[in-house]
Amino acid sequence: MASPGITTSSAGSVGAATPAVALTEERKRKRKESNRLSAQRSRARKQRQVDDLEAQVAAMRARNCAMAAAANEAERLCAAVQAENALLSARALELSARLESLTDLIQCMDAVMYSNNNTNNNSYYY
C-alpha cells in the first residue's frame, strides 16, 4: 500500500504526489475531522437533552408525590369535617327538639298560670 502523499504511476514507479492529489487528500482529511467533531458535538448535545429530560422527569415525579400527599391530606381533612358536620347536625336536631319541648312546657305553664289568675280574679267579683 502506498504512503499518504506518495503515488505510484501505472509503470509502478514511486513519484511525488501532485499538488492536486495532495490538496484532495488534505480536504478529505479535514472533512473527516470536521465530521468527527460535528458528530461529537451532536452526541454531546443529545446527551444534554437526555439529561435535561431526566431532570424534568425527576422534578415532575417529586411534584406528583407532593401533590398526592396534599390530596390525601385534603381527603383526610374533608372526611373529618364531614364527620364533625354529621355530629353537629345531629346535635342541632336534638337541641331543636329540646327547644320545642321546652317551649311547649312554657306555654302549658303560662296557660295554667293564666287560668289560675283568671279563677282568682273572678272569685272576688262573686
Automatic annotation (TrEMBL):
Tree of life domain: Eukaryota
Domain (BZIP) ranges: 25-88
Region of interest (Disordered), ranges: 1-51
GO biological process: positive regulation of DNA-templated transcription
Entries under Pfam families matching the protein: bZIP_1 (PF00170)
Record keywords, A-Z: DNA-binding, Nucleus, Transcription, Transcription regulation
Stated name of the protein: BZIP domain-containing protein
Organism: Brachypodium distachyon (Purple false brome)
Record gene name: LOC100844261
